[in-house]
UniProtKB/TrEMBL annotation, chain B:
It comes from Devosia nanyangense. Residues 82-293 form the ABC transmembrane type-1 domain. Keywords: Cell membrane, Membrane, Transmembrane, Transmembrane helix, Transport. GO terms for biological process: transmembrane transport. It is a multi-pass membrane protein. InterPro entries: ABC_transporter_permease, MetI-like, MetI-like_sf. It holds the Pfam family BPD_transp_1. It is found in: Cell membrane. This is Sugar ABC transporter permease. Its main location: membrane. It comes from the Bacteria. The chain crosses the membrane at residues 28-51, 85-107, 119-140, 177-196, 217-238, 280-298.
Length: 275, 304
């Protein structure tokens, strides 16, 4: 039986969250449909003419199809770095969990360091220049991997602890080598946590603004987050196109959220319960 | 890609010895991750300790001792960045703990429409920070923004949220809370759901009120969640850059500058040594706050 407080409280909560959380998104959607003169008013009024499609076409054509290039760049960046994060992170988490050695202590320390230390920006740029990777997508991919490894390893190590060692031992007796055991037996069993890592990291990397700003400057290589600045200028902002672009780059995380809601929450709440 | 890096400067410590280990858990599994992490994260971090002591043009570095750090503590606008970083981090994590806990308790109760509420409050966590920043900058415009035009309808003259020096930093912090509180909420929900129901039943039999149950059961037993929320949001708050950059660029004046935006501004201005010193200051600040805090919080938890 639900007590009245749960019903009235629920209704109040629905009203408040709708105003606080839905209205800003509504504002984006409404203004993405207006003409540039109407959107310049920055109000919630319904558009006089619905022109989402025209705005969309205009956003895509701006600066020689820069948004399309940016989507391609962001997709390559996300897929490549998340792939490496999964494979390399799982390899480290596996050995770290299975075999305590002289490396365990330093590795644990470095994982924590990776979680809390803010990256040193200018020395990294200097290094990337030295390696010929500054302003290249390859360089940014490796940067995202370096910055995301700690979190991936933590998730993998915790999950691998739940896989019985007897499985590895049976495989060893059957004569399987380390590569066979890891890629043939362990990795397939890691599927739930692999999905979590993929989903959480790809949202983070797709939404990343700071690292592309520092390590991949220039319009030619823009990632999606930087395209917003195409429509934003101090004196002449095209609000309708700006909000259409925001709408466009919100769609991928929205799709991911609809399908992988559970995995995202699982990944982000790891550590909330004393294990 | 990886091979390119190994060729020039893999740190010696990450090279494996040519001894063939019969172990099914070979140490070389560490290697790909160790090379990428060591070269692109660890090496620049260590190098920053040196470069922060220099006047640096990327081509040559002149050693000037602690000059950059002195400048950081002497120049009012740099010092303000330091103070603002602390205000921002404490404000955002405090609000995330309080609101996150309230929402967590609410959404683990029998309230109607839990699924809807959770989905709606959590979604901003996944949205682009810059997009959120730009949207709220528009909503917070002093005259044309929807927030102040709505307040004007009920006769309140809203402040210049982002243009008034007294409000700018706080306004950005509030948007940060808006975007991040969903994460605190789901962390609390996971923590609260894990509390055994028997405790509440026993307390009910003893005649405890709702507040007593909250104070003596939920709050202490959700401590791991509180620790996670505080640590995560403090680290995030101290390092926060993109939201502030999208909303105020540190303005008006330097009133909403934080260390991370100072680092970017000094980098753009070509003061690479000073920018790197900013990085070291931020690093020290994070370490000095987070390490003792997590030790303290984790000890308290054992006592319970």
């Amino acid at each position: 039986m639900r007590r009245p407080i749960h019903i009235w409280g629920g209704i109040a909560a629905i009203l408040i969250t709708t105003v606080v959380f839905i209205v800003p998104f509504l504002f984006i959607v409404v203004n993405a449909m207006k003409s540039s003169r109407e959107a310049a008013m920055r109000s919630f009024a319904m558009p006089a003419v619905w022109r989402l499609w025209d705005n969309l076409v205009e956003v895509i054509q701006t600066r020689d199809y820069m948004v399309l290039t940016a989507f391609v760049n962001s997709t390559i960046l996300t897929v490549a770095s998340v792939t490496m994060l999964v494979i390399f992170g799982a390899m480290v988490g596996y050995v770290l969990q299975r075999r305590p050695s002289i490396w365990t202590g330093p590795a644990n320390f470095l994982i924590l360091a990776g979680l809390i230390i803010p990256p040193a920006v200018v020395p990294t740029i200097w290094l990337l220049q030295g390696l010929g990777l500054f302003k290249t997508l390859h360089g940014l991919i490796l940067i995202e991997v370096a910055y995301g490894l700690s979190f991936s390893v933590l998730l993998f190590r915790a999950f691998i602890a739940t896989i019985p060692r007897e499985l590895d031992e049976a495989a060893i007796i059957d004569g399987a080598g380390p590569m066979r055991i890891f890629f043939g037996i362990i990795l397939p069993l890691l599927r739930p946590v692999v999905v979590t890592v993929i989903v959480v990291q790809s949202v983070a990397i797709f939404n990343d603004f700071t690292n592309p700003l520092y390590y991949l400057p220039g319009n030619k290589n823009a990632t999606v987050q930087l395209t917003l600045y195409n429509f934003l200028s101090q004196f002449n902002t095209s609000y309708n196109l700006l909000f259409t672009d925001i709408l466009l780059i919100t769609i991928p995380p929205l799709i991911v959220y609809i399908f992988f809601n559970r995995q995202i929450v699982a990944g982000l709440t790891a550590g909330a319960v004393k294990g | 890609m990886v091979a390119e890096i190994t060729r020039d400067d893999a740190p010696a410590s990450t090279r494996i010895k040519p001894v063939r280990s019969p172990s099914p858990y070979p140490s070389w599994f560490y290697l790909p991750a160790a090379i990428i992490y060591g070269v692109l994260f660890l090496f620049p971090t260590v190098a920053s300790l040196f470069f922060s002591l220099t006047r640096w043009t990327l081509f040559d570095a002149t050693f000037i001792g602690l000059g950059n750090f002195q400048q950081f503590l002497k120049e009012p606008f740099l010092l303000q960045g330091l103070v603002n970083t602390l205000i921002y981090a404490v404000l955002t994590s405090g609000l995330k703990v309080v609101i996150g806990l309230a929402l967590g308790v609410m959404l683990t109760s029998q309230i109607v429409a839990r699924g809807y509420l959770r989905a709606v409050i959590f979604f901003p966590v996944l949205v682009s920070t810059v997009g959120v920043g730009i949207t709220f900058t528009t909503l917070m415009h002093p005259t044309a923004g929807a927030i102040n035009t709505t307040l004007a309808l009920v006769g309140i003259h809203g402040p210049g949220w982002l243009t008034d020096p007294h409000f700018a930093l706080i306004s950005v912090a509030l948007v940060d809370v808006w975007k991040g509180v969903g994460l605190a909420m789901v962390i609390y929900m996971a923590g609260i759901v894990a509390i055994p129901q028997e405790f509440y039943e026993a307390a009910s039999i003893d005649g405890a009120t709702g507040w007593q149950k909250f104070g003596s059961i939920t709050l202490p037993l959700a401590m791991p969640a509180t620790i996670t929320v505080i640590i995560l949001s403090l680290i995030g708050g101290l390092r926060s850059f993109d939201l502030i950059w999208a909303m105020t660029k540190g303005g008006p004046g330097f009133t909403s500058d934080v260390i991370a935006s100072v680092i970017y501004k000094q980098y753009q201005a070509g003061f690479y040594g000073l920018s790197t010193a900013g990085n070291v200051v931020l690093f020290v600040l994070v370490a000095v706050l987070i390490v003792p805090l997590s030790a303290f919080l984790n000890r308290r938890q054992v006592e319970l």
